[in-house]
Specification:
Pfam families: Ank_2. By secondary structure, the protein is mainly alpha-helical. Among the domains are: 134 residues, Serine Threonine Protein Phosphatase 5, Tetratricopeptide repeat (Alpha Horseshoe); 88 residues, no CATH class; 86 residues, Serine Threonine Protein Phosphatase 5, Tetratricopeptide repeat (Alpha Horseshoe). The protein is 56% helix and 0% strand. Helix 22 packs antiparallel against helix 23. It is flat and about 85 Å long. It starts with a helix and ends in a 17-residue tail after the last helix.
Length: 504
């Protein structure tokens, strides 16, 4: 009944309730139904069952914006307090009601002067208790995102949170609602005796710092008073060019080089050029690698041509990880930092290892043919784990390895992948497998449920199986493997290697 209630299956809930000697339910039934917005089930269970509910019911309804459920539960006593959500067996993807979400309505419920049970939910009984203690930053954020201007007006009129504060500006900039941002900035200007007309002028006034008012009268939000420095970066991260320009016109001190870094990361060359023209913070040495990571070649070229940035190891690594040969060629063509120039980064194993780990065969070929690249034994393991037989074949056929490699370990790892990879490793690597390795390979294939691998190892290569292996198949319910092993006859008499558990 608990799961039926959580998922909104009212007919099942009623069926189980009216059934003689039915399974019953626990407090999790109402807690879950309230959390996921099923008010009809909440009302039914409260009226007809005696199990009650816990603090989780109200908390869940508040978090998900079900104002009618919040209002319904506010005046009803709960059973006990819980600090955690549902136990793991109930932590499932429940069906959440699409209708009835009203985050502003939740705020209004929490701000009602007569709220007899609110102290029991989240706050101790104190003489100076304030209902606003129950409102979190998440509640404000959700309400603003759902219904921006009415929410701002409500929280302003009821003094829930200081509108003229860096915290409120941070919230509305993150949401990216233009009218809300303007509303908060006007409030900040009024509180600091600055003319609002400055917001509509092209030229910014002399830099100034607003007074940062307390977020709430109760000051209960931890870490809730950020400064204004990061606001420009937040707007850039959203790609909100209009807000970037508006924040600049305020004249407020936004001293943060991360703004241009963020613009480089998302590939907004227009914002980068504007910041370069009208702001003085510049950017960090990570701006160019971030642009490379995003595949923004126009931005990378701009940093080189205008800012005279050199190629760094991080830039090369990001281009290789993306498999972007065009970007890599450009980076190689420009001046490099002294460290890279001396060490020839692209010919080192780390370069090809990165390309192999990320699965870029064309990049591997380019590094080998044109940059004299080689790889380490880790690259072979990456190809096997990633089931990239094409890459593994290229490494073997072109002798790309620098150093020694444990072919036996590769064969064991291949047993847990596709059968083509397994066949290639066993047939082409110059190794005579030990008996323990054969046992580990069969065990790994059985544990992974890879019937084709098991058949090939047994029928073609003559690998045997022992009792412990079929026990592993039974434990994991690999029915086809169980049937196959029994069809081959009796198991081999052998000693089970305790180290097999490491190769599951």
């Amino acid at each position: 009944m608990d799961l039926a209630a959580m998922n909104g299956h009212f007919d099942i809930v009623k069926f189980l309730h009216y059934r003689d000697n039915g399974p019953g339910c626990t407090t999790r039934a109402i807690d879950g139904a309230a959390t996921y917005g099923h008010i009809n089930i909440v009302q039914f269970l409260v009226a007809n069952r005696s199990e009650g509910f816990t603090t989780l019911a109200l908390r869940g309804a508040v978090q998900n914006g079900y104002s009618k459920i919040v209002e319904y539960l506010m005046h009803r006593p709960h059973e006990q307090t819980f600090d955690e959500y549902f136990i793991p067996i109930h932590r499932v993807e429940c069906r959440q009601a699409a209708e009835g979400k009203d985050y502003l309505g939740v705020l209004k419920c929490l701000c009602q002067p007569s709220f007899p049970n609110i102290c029991q939910y989240d706050m101790p009984h104190t003489a100076d208790f304030c209902p606003m203690h129950c409102i979190s930053e998440e509640n404000i954020y959700a309400a603003l995102k759902d219904n921006p201007i009415p929410t701002l007006e409500y929280v302003h009129q009821n003094n829930i949170i200081a509108i003229a504060s860096s915290k409120m500006l941070e919230i509305v900039v993150k949401i990216g609602h233009a009218q809300s941002i303007r509303y908060v900035l006007e409030a900040i200007f009024r509180e600091n005796d600055m003319p609002i007309s400055l917001l509509d002028q092209d030229n910014a006034p002399d830099p100034w710092t607003p007074v940062n008012y307390d977020v709430t009268p109760c000051q209960h939000w931890s870490g809730s008073s950020p400064n204004y420095l990061s606001m420009l970066s937040l707007a850039v991260a959203n790609g909100d060019f209009d807000t970037v320009k508006l924040l600049h016109r305020t004249g407020i001190k936004f001293s943060s080089y991360t703004a241009m870094d963020k613009a480089a990361e998302i590939g907004r060359l227009d914002i980068i050029k504007w910041l370069h023209t009208y702001r003085t913070e510049g950017c960090s040495f990570q701006a160019m690698p971030l642009a490379v990571k995003g595949g923004h070649k126009d931005v990378v070229k701009w940093f080189y041509e205008v800012k005279h940035f050199k190629c760094t190891a991080n830039s090369l690594k990001n281009a290789i990880a993306n498999g972007d040969i065009t970007m890599l060629k450009f980076l190689i063509s420009i001046p490099m930092t002294q460290w890279i120039h001396k060490r020839h980064y692209t010919s080192y194993p780390i370069a090809m290892d990165t390309a192999i780990y990320c699965g870029h065969l064309e990049m591997v070929e380019y590094l080998h043919k044109y940059r004299n690249g080689c790889c380490s034994d880790d690259a072979f393991s990456s190809a096997v784990y990633g089931n990239r037989l094409d890459i593994l074949k290229y490494l073997v056929e072109n002798n790309c390895l620098q150093g020694d490699i444990d072919y036996e370990i590769l064969c064991i790892n291949a047993a847990g992948g596709n059968v083509d990879m397994l066949m290639y490793c066993v047939d082409h690597f110059p190794i005579e497998l030990e008996a323990e390795s054969k046992q580990r390979m069969m065990y790994k294939a059985i544990c992974r449920g890879l019937l084709n691998n098991v058949k090939w190892l047994y029928e073609v290569k003559g690998f045997e199986w022992i009792d412990e292996m079929i026990e592993a198949a039974i434990e994991r319910r690999h029915e086809k493997i169980i049937d196959y092993l029994y069809s081959t006859g009796d198991p081999q008499v052998g000693v089970f290697d305790d180290c097999l558990y490491m190769f599951e």
